[in-house]
Amino acid sequence: MRPIVYAISGHGFGHASRSIEVVNALLAAHPARPVHIRTSAPRWLFDLTVRGPFVYHAVNTDPGVVQHDSLSLDADETVRRASAYARDLPALAAREAEVLRQLDAAFVVADIPPLALAAARLAGVPAMAIGNFTWDWIFRDYPGGEDAADVLGEVYRRAGRAFRLPLAGGFETIPDVIDLPFIARRATYAPADTRARLGLPRGRLALVSFGGYGVSGMDLDALSRTTGWTLLVSASVPFGPDRVPFAQVGTRGALHPLDEPAMYGVGLRYEDVVAAVDVVVTKPGYGIISECLANDTALLYTDRGHFIEYDVLVREMPRYVRCAYLPQAELLRGDWQAALDTLVASPPAPERPAVDGAVVAAQWIVRQLA
Fold first, then answer.
1. Dihedral sign from CA coordinates of 107, 91, 175, 79
2. For residue 325, what are the domain limits?
3. Residues 179 and 226 in one domain
4. Would you say residue 259 has pLDDT above 70?
5. Is 351 within a domain?
6. Of 315, 297, 368, 363, nearest to 126 (Cα)?
7. 50, 119, 126, 352: which has the fewest Cβ within 10 Å?
8. Structurally, how many domains does the chain consist of?
9. How far apart are CA 70 and CA 249, in angstroms?
10. What order do you get walking across the sheet with 215-216 strand by strand?
11. CATH classification at residue 18
12. What is the pLDDT of residues 287-329, one digit of tens each?
């Protein structure tokens, strides 16, 4: 049977985590249909969370945004890479189109790399973009990024159609847009069960979630003196003044390492931990916002450098998630106490939207292949 090819941006984990939900829904709806995943996101993320057979291809699908760490980025290098990507796109798309022909692809889904859409058009394969932003919109906001944005916007225009998730920006260049509900990972274990499986202490828990980029310059001594809270930090994430994995810091006061391999080993997933804590401390991103929404967890966020999506997320997310802002200076000096205490006592968000976007998208794609 001809496969679905799913191309995923490797920028952070958010694109991959929501794409995995759609892949799982596709596999559930049509288990005989092969799925090929093309991305620079790490393979282990898919091995641990895709519920069915798939083929993984390590491919750099787009340049993303260049990060120093989770809270700072390099705008000049981002524009340089975006410009090179736009310049090289015809040759890249020709090679990618040949891959699609060799695979005899039936359909291409792109979250949301222009390369995959350009290649699908060359190969004559139907395609659908999916995301909450487009890369032309992102790059146009940086000085010098306008020419790359024009090229990528034309690719999106020619692709013709897209699923647009909530918390969206861009999409003006795409003629046919279908709005989806949220795609979100939901816990499969009760919070008490997750806490017991991980041996977590009683009382209030906060998950420190800054993805694989980590955070530099954190005052760990001050943070460890937070009272009434246990702060879970992924053991593998670079954290603190020396950017060492937190496993090398170890348990200290309020700080407690989260052993993610052990977590997966006992059958838990990251979304189970999100559901088991009272607050997630993070930078705003679609993935973590949607998971806090789906699992009724509060979100304490900080600023993340100049990224136009941030403004949309900060404006829209109070409708759906209990959230509060912690200035980056306070975050880095470990002054979280008042913000955590205030947020955990705040009322629920006013709206409870649907979070079944993965199933809606998968059903639409399967109908196109009928």
1. positive
2. 191-344
3. no
4. yes
5. no
6. 368
7. 352
8. 2
9. 19
10. 215-216, 238-240, 244-245
11. 3.40.50.2000
12. 999 999 999 999 999 998 889 999 999 999 999 999 999 999 9
